[in-house]
Amino acid sequence: MKRTAFLIIGATAAFAAMATAGTTTPDDVTFDDYGAVSASLTGVAGDAANGRKLFANRKLGNCLACHQNNDYLEQSFHGEVGPSLDGAGDRWNEAELRGLVSNAKNTFEGTIMPAFYRTSGFYRNMEKFDGKSILSAQDVEDIVAYLLTLTE
């Protein structure tokens, strides 16, 4: 019985390690000269349906707080701080969108858009957030997949 439990635990741990082995950590993301990130952060395709949910999630992406998006007409408030994301999939390619969601400051130096996939190089006013990114690597991939669906 103990041997079977050990094998199950070992197999589960090995599977978990394989699932995260391909994930790029926030400090290891490679941006090109224009802020684009060509390589997937996870090696797993983004889920546009989940990305749409994250887009409006007030505890994670909360993109609607700053960006207008006609795909979310059921929401009464759309921010006007950032550009409209209608047609985002036509204006930017996947690598550019991945860079913008990860850390837009690499593309637009003066932007107030948060770095959603970054864990160092800034001050966190709450210790519980030290060393943590706002979004996970897969969250970034999911939001990018969703943004690519926003075409004119």
Molecular structure report:
It is a single chain. Helices cover 37% and strands 0% of the residues. Helix 2 (48-56) packs across helix 5 and helix 4 packs across helix 5. With 152 residues, it is mainly α.
Topology:
Elements: H1 2-21, H2 48-56, H3 88-91, H4 94-103, H5 137-149
Helix pairs in contact: 2-5, 4-5
How many domains, in number, for the residues?
Answer: 1
CATH architecture: Orthogonal Bundle
β-strand percent reads: under 5%
Order of helices and strands: HHHHH
> What do we call the CATH topology?
Cytochrome Bc1 Complex, Chain D, domain 2
Q: Structural class of the helix and strand makeup?
A: mainly alpha
CATH homology-level superfamily: Cytochrome c-like domain
Features:
152 residues, mainly alpha, 0% strand, globular
Q: What would you say about this model in short?
A:
The chain is 37% helix and 0% strand. With 152 residues, the chain is mainly alpha-helical.
